[in-house]
Amino acid sequence: MIPELNKIYQGDTLETLKTWPDEFIDCVITSPPYWKQRDYEVSGQYGLEDTETEFIDKMCNVFDEVKRILKQTGVLFVVIKDTYYGGGRNAGNTKPHPKARKGLEFVGNIVKAPKGNGKAQIPARFSIEMLKRKWILQNEIIWQKPNQMPESVKKRFTNDFEMVYFFTKSTNYYFNQQLESSSDKSEMDYRRILRRKNANDYKLKKPYSGNFPKSFREDGMRNKRTVWNIPTKSYYGAHSASYPEELVKLCVEAGC
Asked: Using CA atoms, how far apart are residues 192 and 39, in angstroms rounded to an integer?
């Protein structure tokens, strides 16, 4: 089956992908359900596996099919967040909290954290398993959220980011370079380094382009870095954790 453009296909992800042809997709952007975060009351749902290993294996089986349908020049962006183990009373109890609803949209029951202490390191485990399955990791991107909701914690720092993994299936992949502004501070710092290193070689008059590495452009732009400061956006007509458009836009413009 060749999927139609601008059509939503609803079904089990793995089984649906198996019906699609080889190497016809340019760019995949996805965020699978996070482990032990929500119960959507759907049989066979992803994210409620008993162990981290089972969850990661199940996710990577899906990405095996993604790799098959992706063009040799194609790219994959995966947004994934870590899970904290639960300690103390009721740790490991998976009985859901009362349903959380916004308007008429069911956003899933919150579930208790799995038994244990600290972070489960789901993103790191996932990326390592993807490498074992011959994916090529081009970047680990940090999606930093300046408007992150406070956490009721006093014995650790508040988490305000999620990981975005940029994978390819070959070294000959499509990438449209994305640029960002180069701050005046970074330019001044670079000039100070040049002065200390060899004052005689430093050109005191403009243009300064001869003193700058290729990453500094004359128009004040540079290659985009891997910390993306993007606020979350509320959208009450859909899931409570819907993508901010700016995050998707960056991935699409880079990968298509």
From this structure: 55
The overall longest dimension of the chain from CA atoms, in Å, is 71
Spatial separation of the C-alpha atoms in residues 154 and 88, rounded to whole Å: 15
112-127 residues labelled b (16+ CB within 10 A) or e (exposed): ebbeeeeebebbebbb
The pTM of this model reads: 0.82
Residue 95: which region, alpha, beta or left (left: phi > 0; alpha: psi -120 to 50)? beta
Neighbouring-strand partners of residue 101: 106
pLDDT at 173: 98
Q: What is the pLDDT of residue 93?
A: 45
Token reading at 85: 């183990």
The answer to whether 125 touches 52, Cβ cutoff 8 Å, is yes
**Who's near 208: CB < 8 A, 6+ residues apart?**
187, 191
Quick one: tokens of 208? 């300064």
- Residues in the chain with pLDDT values less than 70: 87-107, 183-218, 235-241
